[in-house]
Amino acid sequence: MSTATHRIPLYEPDFARDPHAVYRRMREQFGPLVPVDLAPGVPATLVVGYEQARRIITDPQRFPADPRRWQTSVPDTCPILPMMEWRPNALRSAGAEHARYRAANTAALDAVDQHALRAHVEVVAEQTIDSFKTAGKADLLSQYAWPLSFRTLSHLLGCPDEVGHRIADGMAKIFDGVNASLGNQILAQAVADLIALRRQHPGDDVTSRLLKHMARLDDTEMGHQLITLYGAGIEPLTNLITNTLLEMLTNSEFSASLHAGDAPVREALDTVLYRDPPLANFAMTFPPRPVDMSGFLLPADQPVVISYAACNNDPALGPHRPLGNRAHLAWGAGPHRCPASSHAYLIAEAAILHILDALPEMDLDGHRDGLVWRPGPFHRSLTALPVTFPAS
C-alpha cells in the first residue's frame, strides 16, 4: 500500500503552463492517486484515474464533502481556505443538509426561462461587442467573456451592477488564492446586501425564489447559496467561453469551419470540457476514516480532489470512448453534479455564436504558445485572449 511522502505542487506557474505534461508524470510516478500540495504545506490526494474518480464522487458515505474536521488543521491565513472551507450550502454539506440545500437551488434554477435567458445573452453579447468592434482588436477574456458572464449571472440573480462588481471582485481573489481572506470578506458583505434588497423587493429571479422556497433558508444560508452560484457562474463560465474561443481560433479541427462560417460550437465546447475544463481540479471530498483505494491509503480528514482534466484523458479509457467527448466529468457526477449545466451550455453557446457571427474574420493576436495561464490548483484560466479583426 502506497504511503508516498513526495508531493507535487499544484500552485506553481509550471503546473499552469502545461498541466497535461504534469498529469502524465503523475501517472508514471504514482498511478491514479497522486500526493499533491494544493498550497504550501496543504497536502491532498489528486485523483487522475477515471475509474477511481467515479467511485469516489458517487460514494458520499465514504467520501463526504463536509470539510469541517479538515479545516481545523489549516491556519486561517491558508490561501485556499476560502475556496474549500465549510459553508452551509449543497457543495460543502452531506446527508439531510445537502438534500435540503440542493432542493432549494434546483427549484430556483429550474424555474429559469431558457428562451428568455438566450435572448438576454444575445442582447448583452451585442452590446458588449459594440463597445470594442471599432478598435480592430480586443481581449476576449476581459472585454467579452467576463462582462457577459457577469451581466448574465447578475440578471439571473436579480443583482444590481454595483453589488455584482463587489461579488465578482471577491470571487476572483478567492479563485486566485491571492488576498483570498479579503476576497471572502468582500464577498460576504456584497451577498448580504443582495439578500436584504431582494427580501425587501422580491422579483422573478433566482435569489427571490431561494428566499421563498420551503427550505426556509436564513440569511446566513442564503448568503452561502449565492456565493456558490456566483462561484460556479462567473469564473468557470468566463473560462469556458474563453477557452472554447481559443480552441476555435487555434485548433485546426475547428478553425477552418470557423472561417467558413460553419463553426461547430457545441463540439468545441465539449472538446474544452473534455480536454481543458474551466474547473480542472475540484469536487473535493474529505474521508472521515482512512480508505484503501487501488492500493493507495487515503488519509482521514485530508482532501481528495478530482482532476476532471486528467480523468477525462485517462489512457486507461482507451482511444475510443463510447460517448465521445460528452462522457467527460466536467460537470461532476453523483449527488454533487452541477445543477446548472444546461444554463452554462446555453450561455456559452449563445455567447460564442454571437461573436463569431459579428466578427467572422477574427484571429488570435500572436501565437497560442505565447498565451499565459493563471496559476492555481483549481482553475484552467488564461490571463488574456487577444484577438484582431477588421474594424467596423
Description:
This protein has 392 residues and is an alpha+beta fold. It has one domain (8-388): Cytochrome P450 (Cytochrome p450, Orthogonal Bundle). The protein contains 17 helices and ten strands. The longest helix has 21 residues, at 180-200. It is globular, with a radius of gyration of 21 Å. It starts with 7 loop residues before the first strand and ends with a strand. 47% of the residues are buried. The mean pLDDT is 89.
Which strand order does the major sheet show?
A: 1-2-3-8-5
Q: How many domains?
A: 1
What is the CATH homologous superfamily assignment?
Cytochrome P450
The rounded Rg comes to 21 Å
Give the termini separation: 64 Å
Portion of residues in helices? 40-55%
Low-pLDDT runs of 5+ residues are none
Count of β-strands: 10
Key words describing this protein structure:
5-stranded mixed beta sheet; single chain; 392 residues; globular; alpha+beta; Cytochrome p450; 17 helices
List the helices and strands and how they pair.
Layout: E1 8-9, H1 13-17, H2 19-30, E2 33-39, E3 42-47, H3 50-57, H4 68-71, H5 81-84, H6 95-110, H7 114-130, E4 137-139, H8 141-157, H9 161-176, H10 180-200, H11 206-212, H12 219-233, H13 235-250, H14 252-259, H15 265-275, E5 281-285, E6 291-293, E7 296-298, E8 304-307, H16 308-312, H17 341-358, E9 363-364, E10 386-388
Parallel strand pairs: 1-2, 3-8
Antiparallel strand pairs: 2-3, 4-10, 5-8, 6-7, 9-10
